[in-house]
Each structure stands twice: as structure tokens, then as C-alpha cells.
Design a protein that fits this description.
The structure is a single chain. By secondary structure, the protein is of the alpha/beta class. Strands 8-7-6-5-4-3-10-9 form an eight-stranded parallel sheet. An eight-stranded parallel β-barrel has the order 11-14-15-16-17-18-19-20, surrounded by four helices. The protein starts with 7 loop residues before the first helix and ends in a 16-residue tail after the last helix.
Length: 746
Amino acid sequence: RASTPPPRSSQRPRVREMAAALGSAHQLRAAAPPALRKRGKKTLKASRALPVVRAASTEPKIESVAAAVPSDAFLPDGLYCVDNTQTIRRKTRTVNIGKVKMGSDHPIVRQTMTTSDTRDVEATVAEVKKCADAGAEMVRITVQGMQEAKACAEIKKRLVEDGYDTPLIADIHFAPKVAMMVAECFDKIRVNPGNFADGRKKFEDILYETDEEYNAEIEEIEKIFTPLVLKCKERGVAMRIGTNHGSLSARTLSRYGDTPAGMVESAFEFARICRKHDYHNFVFSMKASNPLVMVQAYRLLAHEMYKLGWDYPLHLGVTEAGEGEDGRMKSSIGIGALLLDGLGDTIRVSLTEASHLEMEPCTRLRDVGHKAAEEKWRVEKFEEKGRDFKDFARRASDLPVQKEDDAIDLRNILHRDGSVLSAVTPAHLASEDPFYRDLGAKLAVGMPLRDVATSDSILLTEVPEPSDEKAMRSIRRLQEIGVGVVADAAALTERPVDDAVALVAAKGAASAALPDCAARVAVVFDGTETEEEVKVALGVDPVMALIECAPGVSRLHASRRLFTNILAAGSSVPVIHRIQFTDADVKDDIVIQSGSQVGGLLCDGLGDGVLIEHPTAELDYLRRTSFGLLQGSRMRNTKTEYVSCPSCGRTLFDLQEVTAAISERTGHLPGVAIAVMGCIVNGPGEMADADFGYVGGAPGKIDLYVGKEVVKRGIDNDTACDELIQLIKDHGRWVDKEEEEEAVAA
């Protein structure tokens, strides 16, 4: 670690760059450590007068702001997982939660959270049973006040009487006294370091002038938190120290900004208090609605625990993931990426759906983690380069350029923010208008036009016969609007398609015969190539490279090795992840597997696009899933982004119904992010990635936000959606839905 940080002037541009890449909404005016700030700057709001004391623990603290300052300035070298070339579960201690044992010596635990009003004992008991019957091994229940805490005792009693011993977890915010009460009957307590000791329920900007002032509040936190630690230790109750990206305390934000480093240090402050009292029956979580932030925070947490010799289990989850395929995709990207690196001991898939419906994707993700670890998905050892888990950056790549003798425009066959390729058959091509719609094209007088979510290129799984007039006409029309046409080189030699991109295997690419009709060449890697074979293949100057891993090859690890070899070759060729499924794979498999294996790479900036294939799935579904994968990986926005909480007992309106209504009216606004939150318990920071917020303020009333600032309060539920749309219009972000022209004969 550098003995002194670089000058502040050299760091500020980097702060803004990384904050933007990770989707941070905070202005990181105080993101750098105190050593980088000028002394004497006035606080925005005076902090409470507390005794000036140093932190009780002498264990090392995080001394950097990950993703906000250059990684080589502070953080030492090191890894966050056992081995970056194979899946090995990180060794963790066993934590006991009722009858459930959690840790690396045990299967990954599945859990969910109820949505019913906790005071309604009958409804909550019924929901817990339904979740347990669906496979939940633990169930979390919100406990916001004393009435709910009293109900919890009856809920536990009723479940035991009915033969259900499923461990119950109390979700606590702002209420230490409530936590103490529910610890008498529940098996685990979840505390949020960002608000556990903040009974004021206010979210204020505070800047601390000195380290002494900053550390003084630790004494106050310890006074409030220690009784719960001792209670849990005495009764054998487990705890989750669960940090949320959007609900960091004002104190933490003043030093770290809303960064992964702030999330980790916030959790560590509470963990140090637990350790001081020899209490170790706890787990960590680092949740965020942005999968990139979530992945980076967990990796940093694991890295810091390795340095300290800590072995506490990890609870994985992407918070406010949303509903349907989008929610499943975002969860798969974040949770799957970590599971394939051997991180994670329990998982929850947070969906804006009925709680028991979370269990199917949760089970599929658990199975991904188990399969990878048990089968030891791996590649041969290699020294990885070009990827820094502490510092997100997309790999640089070169888009196609136009050549003087090109007969058509090839500059748009790939997209700068991430490309989608679609595999098509002659039957697809021959259907014409339905085919154009499935590709996401608009139609005008029977002719296809590119739209915001039109496939950038098509891959011909079979080149049509020259006599197939409809299929050949579709190819020409797509080329005229800049859509690329890719096909196997041998097939193009037999059935030429003018100005196509010829596909050749990387092994043997240098000697491959290219058809005369080809305007460009693309190479296909199977993940087993040597460094020399990669270098030779890239010598043919491909316009793109496809990774389609050979059977039995770990996609995540083989792709990391391939990107290392591409870097060594000095190439900036765009790389497309091609993932192929079989008839046995259902739609949920497509989402979970592509999100885990491809999304895990895109989260590291490794990849420029995706091609998802399935023998029977609809072309339109595969295209939409591909764009969802790019958007979930924070690459290319082609539709409205929703940050939608999964609902709980605190929710002040029918979240599923309202989310569906808002989606129906605003789903055509690419680049706009809308948060739909049942309450504001975790603070406006939960909407850090959103442009506009629709938040339950009181029963029957909605508050509207722009960014993190409330602009309208107490709006009736019945008119709140209209008011939201007007707010979007007032800020110049609204466009009317386009009505597609009826197709007519050209």
C-alpha cells in the first residue's frame, strides 16, 4: 500500500468517472478519505455533541474508497476468492440459525421474506407455511414496532404447533428495543448498520471535520448495539449484519460516499462490536439494486476478511431487483457471478412478486453454485491480467470501420454500448414481417427500420437456398438498414451471401479459406486455445470474436483466460458471448444461466455483446432476454429501468399492482429509471440509481421523488401514477409511444 495518497487534484476526475460507471447518484463531494480533504470545512449540519473517543478496536480499517480512487493508491494486492481459475467455495465458519446450519461445510441455504402485515398473525403464519412448502429453509418477517414484535411471539408459537420449525428472521430498522424483544422468540435478527442506531429516521447530509468527530459516534453505536449482541449470544440467536447500498448512514457517506468501501466499513464497525464480546454467530450481506455495485461490494468484503483472517458466511442478494424476467436476470447476474467464484452461503432472490414465487429462481441459482463447486468447474492455472475486482472498467474494443471498397455500410453491425446478435433460420427469414418484428424492427410501408432494441446482427444457422426469394429479400433489407449478416465460412462458399461476415474457427483461422462474398471475417473461440493460438487467430484481423465454450469447459474461467490472452496479443477486437441451450432448458434456465455465466463476465467489463440460442424458444424472447442481460449488466439501456422493492409488511400499497400499472404506462422510456418503493424505511438512497421515485409515504398516500429529493408529498393513490407521468414530462424525459404503421405491400 502506498505510504501517502496521491494529490487530491489527480483523484477527483477518477472519483466522478468511477461513480458514474457504477451508477452512483451521490455527488461524491466527500468520497475521499479525510487525509484527502482540506481541514476546517464547515459541516452541512452540525453533528451531535458526543464525547471524542477513538474506536475501541485496533483491528485494521479499510483505508481506501474502492471504485472511487485508483486501486493502486491504497489497496494491497490480493484476491477475493479461493481461486480465480476454478469454483471452490470460500471456507466459512458454521453459523447456527435454529435447525439450519449455514457455512461452507453445508449446502447453500434458500430464504425469502413475507409480504403480509406482521400484525395479521393468521396471514403471516399462512404465508410462512406456503414459503416453507415451496422450499424456503428460512423466512424473514418485517418487525417495525412493538405491536409487530408481540405478534411475532404468537406467529412462532402457531408455526411450531402446526409442525413448522422453519427458522424465522426479524428484519429490523431504526428499532433497537424491538430487536431486543423479538430476539426472545425468533432465530435470527437482521440489523442494518445504516439505520439501526438512528432512531430519528432522518437522512441528512453531514460532513465531519475531523477523525475524532467521525469516530466519536462509534461509542454511541456501541451503547445501542451491545445489548442486542449480548442477548443474541446468551440465547444462541444468530444475526445478519446487512448493509444496503442505498441506506448508508450520513456518517459513513461523509467519508466514503455511497461506495462499496463504505458498505464494507459500515458492516465492519458492527462486526467489531460483536467480536469484542466474543459473539461470532453472525453473517454479512452487501446488497444493492445495481448488480455491479453489489458484486464489487461482496468481493471487497471477502478480500478484506481474507486480510483480517475472518471467516463469516455471506448472504447474497440483489435488492429491489423488480419483477418477472428483469428481476430474475438482475439477481442472476449479481448472485450467479459470486456463486461461480465460490462466494455465498445463503441466497435470497428479491422479486416484486408473491414471496413463495421467489423459491424457484432461488433454487435454480443455488443449483448453479452447487454444481459448479461439486464438479469443480475450472481451467488450467494461468496468471490473469486486465481485470481488477476493485476497479470496474469496461475493456476497450474497436467498432467496425468502413472501408473504401465496401458495398454496404458495416459500421452498425455492432453497437458501442453492447451488441445483440440473433440466430435465425431460413424459415424465420421467409416469414418477413413477423420476422422483422421478432428482431425488434419497426415497420413502415412493409419495410423494416431499426429501432432502439433491434438486433444488431443476425447469425444464419443455415444459409438459405439462392432460390428462396423471401429469405434472400429479408437478408438484403436487413443489410440495407445496417444489420450485419454472419454465417459459417464453408456455408457461404457453397451458398454465397454478398457482404456477409464469414465465421471461422480460431484454431486454423490463419489458413482458413474465405469465400469471395465475405466483406469481413469473425473468429470463434471455444475456450481451449493456447496463448499462441489466440494470437495467430487474431492475426486475421477479425471484425468480432465469438466465445462458444466447448462442452465441459467452464465459461467464466475459460473466458477470463481468453481475455487475458487477447490482451497479451494487443488486440481490441469486440467479443460476443455465444451461449447455446438445449430443448431440455426452460425459459428460467435461459435467464439464470446466461445471467450467471455471461453476466458474471460483463460485470467485469469483459465482453461486448451476447448471442443466446435455443432450438425452440421464440426469437423475440431470446432477443428481449439478450437486451435484458445487457441492461442488467449496466451496458445498454433499451427500456425503462425499474428499481422495485419486493414488498414486505411495511409496504403502504399493493406493490405488484402498482408496479404493473406504472410499467404499462412508462415502459417505453429507455434511459429513464423509476423507483417504486413500498416505503422509505431504507432512505432515499435506495433510489440511488433512479431518476424518479414513487414511494409510499402514508397509508393511501404517495410521495414523488426526483433523484433523492422529495418534490411532492401526500398524493392520493388514485392520481399518483398520473402525477408521476406529469413529473417525467416536466423534466423533459417523456416521449409518446410510437404507433407502428400497418404493414402494406411494398
